[in-house]
Amino acid sequence: MDFEESATSLSAIDEEIVTNYAQLNWYITDLRRRLEADALAGTTRGQGKVLGVLQQHPHISQKELARILDIRAASVSELINKLSTKGLVRRQTGHSDHRTTVISLTPAGRATLKHYRQFGAALLVDLTEEERNQLDQITRKLVSSVKSQYALTD
Prior knowledge:
Elements: H1 3-8, H2 12-39, H3 45-56, E1 60-61, H4 62-69, H5 73-85, E2 89-93, E3 101-105, H6 107-122, H7 129-149
Antiparallel strand pairs: 1-3, 2-3
């Protein structure tokens, strides 16, 4: 079954799940905007994405960061310059290859992200530990499925 075919043959429960997911996604997006206005004041959405990638991939090369974000190297360089000026990231020369620039979070960058990520934990406050474990298992399964079906990489 291809993408278009599966989209037109939703069961009632699948339709409900998709509708609820879309609504949750909208609420999360709205909450993220509000939080960014507070926690990441003066930081653009693109800069926030860079910080998020650096949290998942500490000490990443600028080239790899551009690949993950799927943006031009020049755009990454501009984002890094602005974040560096704010004291949230630092550039270092690669240990094995001195031509490589490695980007990492500063303590201020980690603190900013910690505050930013607390909103994610707030979404889980009404879930029991068992429900959190179930959500974790389901989320991991969905991520794995999407990655394999659409040949996505981290």
